[in-house]
Write a structure and sequence with these properties.
globular, 28 strands, 6 helices, Immunoglobulin-like, mainly beta, 497 residues, 4-stranded antiparallel beta sheet, Lipocalin
């Protein structure tokens, strides 16, 4: 049974990532208090009240039962996650999370703290399954001693589903707090869906709080098709819905956004890096409402570096620029470096200075030979140089490998050479899959912008091919990228008209 899930990250989480005015206080608070977040920026006031709760919801909804950031791995599950902090000259254990499953369904997360000699239980998260294998309720409880977890210090998330077009679809999430003798309603996120481009997509979100008598609406956003773009408009409730800002995602369809949401949801189970989130987003610009007129506020500018001998992407730089009524002024940049397998191994945040950029923070990623994430660490500039802050170490079970496993990856994949190449206007791209599984084949322009998704779905083992039709495109180089479990490869093609 397929359950249509909610794409939180793109709409409710990454909004605050994109603001160009950086707030160091909120950055550090989120950095150390939110386990799924690498770094943060200042968020609009209308988002601040719900931020912690939404991050908790997003984290719990994405129990790590598959690949994490930058990972293309076969179906596997996270068994253990270790949080370490830097103590002058070495990494020191701080917190451990162990995961259990009920078949393919998440069952529990048990978190323990290191007291210097042993692991001590701290809290537990329990996932309740509904009739159709969907997440129905999540409980988080604190450890009270003697093997007991006290209900007096717990909250729950209640997921509300309904049938829509033959799919079980998420329509609301309610956040309740246990008050000692009963559950007290706190807030609720509600979603509506619209039939667009031959499928149903979530097109609006509404946030409400409970005043003791009923639900009171606070804020909402709406997603609409805007020519070739998607537009997100944000509103505040003050007796009526008042627009306060909007974001336009350029050259993006609802289906494109759904794919982006899916990739970001994969990241939420392990380690979310802000630069990598920004790399997933399409280019966008933001507008503010001033005297009933929409005016520019900020936009992105993307630079991609390739090894043109093989078409491999080496680096992405996503720059945030702010409009000062006369010029676009660079405010900050997200820089991601990729290894030979096109996996991110370093991702940083930089601020422009007079002579050179100032690198404020840096995420570093390590992988094993199976393409699984071994470790992810964060460092922050202390004034003179980057200083280690924390590190997350991962152990995987199932068919995957755990940390330290150096076994060879036995499954072969291959993205063949397009023919003809150069071409006009059609070319055929052959590829081979060693095992059945998820395969995506996408075409990008030289700036790294998505041009076309040629295939995205389950593929049987064997030899296959897809056709790329470029009649509406301009002459130049394009990049074909294939991704499969434990595999990623890019080839360059040339359109000549």
């Amino acid at each position: 049974m397929h359950v249509k899930s909610l794409p939180y990250q793109i709409n409710n989480v990454t909004y605050m990532y994109k603001k160009s005015n950086y707030a160091f206080v909120s950055l550090l608070v989120l950095l150390f208090l939110l386990p799924m977040s690498g770094i943060s920026q200042e968020m609009p006031k209308h988002r601040a009240a719900n931020w912690i709760q939404k991050m908790q919801i997003a984290e719990k909804f994405n129990h790590p039962d598959a690949s994490g950031i930058g990972i293309q791995a076969e179906k596997t599950r996270l068994h253990r996650q270790l949080l370490q902090v830097w103590d002058e000259s070495e990494w020191v254990d701080n917190e451990e999370t162990r995961y259990t499953y009920n078949g393919d369904f998440p069952a529990t997360e048990t978190i323990s703290s290191w007291n210097g000699s042993e692991w001590m239980p701290a809290r537990r998260i329990t996932f309740m399954k509904g009739d159709y294998d969907q997440i129905e309720t999540i409980l988080e409880e604190n450890y009270a001693g003697n093997g007991q977890y006290m209900p007096a210090e717990r909250y729950r998330l209640i997921y509300g589903y309904s049938w829509s077009s033959g799919e079980l679809t998420l329509f609301h999430i309610e956040y309740d707090v246990w008050m000692g003798s009963e559950w007290e309603k706190v807030s609720r996120d509600s979603f509506t869906y619209t039939f667009i481009e031959d499928d149903f997509y979530m097109t609006s979100w509404t946030g409400s709080h409970h005043d003791g008598n009923g639900w009171v609406q606070d804020q909402k956003y709406e997603m609409t098709v805007y020519g070739d773009d998607l537009m997100q408009t944000d509103y505040m409730w003050s007796g009526e819905w008042t627009p306060i800002g909007r974001t336009i995602y350029m050259n993006t369809r609802m289906a494109d956004m759904a794919e982006i949401n899916a990739r970001i949801e994969e990241q939420a189970g392990t380690y979310l890096s802000l630069p990598l989130l920004m790399a997933e987003l399409p280019d966008f610009y933001e507008q503010e409402l001033q005297d009933n007129i929409w005016v520019f506020a900020s936009r992105t500018e993307r630079y991609v570096t390739y090894d043109w001998s093989n078409g491999q992407m080496l680096q992405q730089k996503i720059e945030i620029l702010e409009w000062d009524h006369h010029l676009w002024i660079p405010q900050m940049a997200y820089v991601i470096d990729y290894d030979e397998n096109v996996k991110p191994y370093r991702a940083g945040i930089e601020f422009p200075m007079e002579e050179e950029s100032y690198r404020f923070s840096e995420d570093v990623f390590e992988y094993n030979d199976r393409g699984l994430l071994n470790a992810a660490s964060l460092s922050i500039n202390s004034g003179e140089e980057l200083a280690n802050i924390f590190k997350r170490v991962y152990e995987w079970d199932g068919t995957g490998t755990s940390i330290g496993d150096k076994g060879e990856f036995p499954v072969s994949f291959n993205l063949g050479n397009a023919y003809p190449n150069p071409f006009n206007p059609t070319t055929v791209i052959p590829y081979e899959t060693g095992v059945a599984g998820q395969v995506t084949i996408r075409v990008y322009d030289i700036l790294g912008r998505l041009v076309s998704t040629l295939y995205n779905g389950q593929q049987s083992a064997g030899k296959h091919q897809v056709r790329f039709e470029a009649a509406g495109l301009t002459s130049g180089k394009y990049l074909v990228r294939m991704e499969a479990p434990g595999y990623s490869q890019t080839r360059a093609i040339t359109l000549l008209k």
